[in-house]
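Technical note accompanying the year-one report. For the benefit of new consortium partners, we illustrate the data format agreed upon in the data management plan: each record pairs a sequence with a structure-token string. No post-processing was applied to the example shown here.
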Amino acid sequence: AFLKSLESSADTEAINLMLHGYQAAHDRLRQLAIDEQTAFATTLAVAMVVNNERLYIGNLGHSRIYIYDQVLATLNPITVDHYST
């Protein structure tokens, strides 16, 4: 879902920046798991504002992104968890 939602956007620079960050984090954690001879499990939630007008969000795993409604004083999730089976 993370990558699919980014692919539908026209802002390729923002997409490439987010994908590069995701891939760099993935590669680093994978290398740590190899170096430490252990298994790692992690989740990711990312939000990026471009030109103060467009918000890009993505999540993997059990990390959520919320939006705060000041009028209602409520915190509302805008992403859903991804469970592995």
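Partners are asked to follow this layout when depositing records. The beta strands are 44-50, 54-60, 66-69, 74-77.
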